[in-house]
Each structure stands twice: as C-alpha cells, then as structure tokens.
Design brief:
about 55% helix, two-stranded antiparallel sheet, six-stranded mixed β-barrel, 16 helices, alpha+beta
Length: about 425
C-alpha cells in the first residue's frame, strides 16, 4: 500500500526538528488525546459491564429467576405445586420461601429488616449464600438460629452466639388492644454477599421458624424457581403459568428489576456517546497538526513534486503520517485501558489509602467492590472506531498537500 519512499518521508515528518516544535507539540497532544480517549472509554465501559454482571449475578443468586405468588393470601399445598413446577422442562428447582418485614431490637437499638425463611437444604443450595458465610456454619442454620449480614452485625455490634429480638408487624389481639408479638433468636451465622442492601437489611431464618413467627403454619409466601438459563426464560415461564393455572401469579426477575437494569443500559449508552467526544476532539487535533504540517512542508512538497512524485504519493505520505499518530495513540490507549480495568480494585484501594477518602461507598453503589468486566468485542469496536476517525481526520490535510501547486509554493522561496 505504501512505498518505501512514502514510509521514509512520513517517518521523517513524525520526527519533527526544533524549527517545527509547535507542530510537534500539537501532534503530541493529538496522540495523548487519542490515547486517553480510548483508555477512558474502555475503562468506563468495562466498569459498566462489571456493574451489570455483578448485580445480575448477585440478584439472581439470592432471588429466584421466576417467582410464584398466590393471588389471594398465602400459598397452601405448596409442596404439591413445588413438585409440579419442578417437573417443567428447564426448571432446576423450586424453593418454598417466606418473606416478611419485622422490627429488630438488640442492645436498646431497633431497625427495620426483611426476614426470609427457607430450609437449611435450600440455604445450602444457594452458593452465593452458603459460600459467603464469614462467621458461623451452614449447619448452624436450624431451629431458632438465624443468619444476618455483615453490615448489620457491624452496625449493631453483634456476632455469632448473640441474641436478637424480632417483633412481628401483626400483633396479637387482646382486651387491651393489639399486643406486639416478639421472639428471640440466636445469631448462628454472619454472611457477606457483596451487596450492601442484603448485608444491611436482610435476615435469613429456617423455614419452620419463619412459619411460626409469621403465623403461616403449612403455608409460604412464594415459590422461587431457578432455571437453566435466566436470560432466556420466557418459554419456561409460560409453561409454569400453565402448570399453576389460576391458583397463583407467575413473575420473573425482569418484571421486578426491569427499571433498574434499563436505567443501567441507558446510562451505559450515554456514557459511550459522551466519552466518544474525547476521541473526536483528539481527531480534530490531528487535523490541526496535519494542516500546519502541510503548510510548514510546502517547499518540500513542491520539490518532491518537481522531482517526479505524484499527487497520489503526496496524499499517501500525509495519510500515513496522521494515521501513525492515531494508530500508536489507539494502541497505547487500549493497553492502558485494559491494564487499568484489570487492576481497578487494587488501584481504588491504593487511591483510597492515598487520599483517605471512600471512593466507592457500598451503601450508594450496592456493591462492596468496584467491578470491571472487559468485553473484547467492545474493545475491538472502540479501537476500530478510534483508528477510523484518525484516518478520516487525515484525509482533508492530505488532499490539501496533494493539490498544492509546486510553482506557487516555490514562487516566493529564495
């Protein structure tokens, strides 16, 4: 595509002399702009991908892919329904669950919590729960032993073996009015699932104990259904709806979290468009530096033309010069962005230690660690876009160089 002569001249123009220092400075800023634009775009898109993947993994790990609720009251004869639902193709398991609100009281402090009741076997079969225990053991999840989150335990200054009191929202009627129902439970385990919302506001309780506490003997709030593919579950949902009929309503995780994930997707698209502007600005810098280079090299262009160089050759020389800046900047930016994204949590910890500030508050961002997931298709698209913009930015200056009239360029030269 490029002859040795064209490559040699383009290489000479990239190594500017002292007299061309200003052109060199603008070219340097163009290089930095392309590099930082590509790196920033890769880092931000990786963090957005990481957010979505982490939240999706943890939400689907703690909640069923499909939930079955009774239209009126609670689910009775849930064991029969559980067996029927587990017989639907694509369903891995259906977990009976009780969920309700309660008031937690300990050491004179009180806070509202969400109580979830499930059997010890089902607790063990949720890896995100069973593998996140930092104190206690899965075998201690029985009887009146409960599991609480790390943030809640730290806030209330309790640990395994301590007792807590839960007050039910519905009291017991008496001649003197409604008397609150309360029960004392022992902390059998402390978990850290990596999501502040669950670590600070959820208590997991054995199913039998939850049925007693919420006065739901022989009943559950819902069935949590886990499927083979949580992304493609429309067909499974339809089959489950046919199985349960009019006895219950069927909802999937998209119904309950659709607005949240749609907001993440919109934010991701907007960030992509905004950060692409950085690369566009850098491309305009390439145009500026190349126009100045063409103006500065007018005499050289005229001499090469009179010695037999074609207009096409002149155009290719300046395209190669500008594209080299874009290519090197894009490559350097891609390497910087990938390395930064792969080590983003370590970098965050270092910056926090250096500044003494919390750069990623768990209570705001839901997650306790800054996630990043590199999508190599996106990286390829960003690199390709930056390189194409760099080439497009060279076309007009290269065309100006090819159209330069040697006679006019040399007329006023001494």
């Amino acid at each position: 595509m490029f002859t040795p002569f064209e490559r040699m001249v383009a290489g000479r123009y990239l190594r500017a002399r002292k007299a061309e220092g200003f052109v060199s400075v603008i070219a340097g800023f163009s290089f930095l702009g392309i590099m930082l634009g590509v790196a920033t775009l890769i880092i931000v898109m990786s963090v957005m991908n990481g957010f979505r993947a982490e939240l999706l993994t943890r939400i689907l790990g703690l909640n069923g892919h499909i939930n079955i609720y009774s239209h009126v009251g609670k689910l009775e004869d849930y064991k029969v329904m559980q067996l029927k639902v587990e017989g639907v193709e694509g369903v891995i398991t259906a977990v009976p669950m009780i969920e309700g609100q309660a008031l937690l009281s300990v050491h004179g402090s009180a806070t509202g919590v969400i109580v979830r009741g499930l059997s010890q076997e089902d607790f063990t079969r949720k890896p995100i729960l069973a593998n996140s225990l930092i104190r206690g053991d899965v075998r201690d999840f029985d009887g009146t032993n409960v599991a609480i989150g790390k943030a809640m335990a730290d806030k209330l200054k309790v640990t395994v073996g301590d007792e807590i009191t839960l007050i039910a929202p519905k009291g017991k009627a008496s001649p003197f009015g409604t008397i609150p129902r309360s029960r004392t439970y022992t902390i059998g385990a402390v978990f850290d699932v990596g999501m502040f919302e669950y670590n600070s506001g959820f208590i997991f309780m054995p199913l039998e104990a939850a049925q007693v506490f919420f006065q739901m003997q022989g009943k559950v709030s819902s069935l949590e259904v886990f499927t083979e593919d949580p992304v493609r579950l429309q067909h499974i949902r339809e089959n489950i709806a046919l199985t349960v009929g009019d006895r219950a309503g069927v909802y999937d995780w998209r119904d309950m979290n659709s607005s949240f994930f749609n907001a993440l997707q919109v934010e991701r698209n907007v960030m992509f468009l905004i950060l692409t502007m950085i690369i566009l600005v850098a491309a305009f810098n390439i145009i500026s530096s190349m126009i100045m280079l063409v103006k500065d090299k007018g005499r050289d262009i005229a001499i090469m033309r009179t010695m037999g160089a074609s207009r096409r050759s002149m155009m290719k020389i300046f395209i190669l010069t500008g594209a080299s800046i874009g290519f090197i900047g894009t490559f350097a930016g891609a390497v910087l962005g990938i390395v930064f994204a792969l080590n983003i949590e370590a970098i965050r910890q270092w910056l926090q230690g250096l500044t003494g500030t919390d750069l990623f508050a768990a209570e705001i961002y839901f997650l306790s660690k800054l996630p990043a997931e590199i999508d190599w298709h996106e990286v390829t698209a960003v690199v390709g876009m930056a390189f194409v913009l760099s080439i497009l930015a060279t076309l007009y200056p290269a065309w100006r160089a090819a159209k330069l009239d040697p006679v006019e360029a040399l007329r006023y030269e001494s």
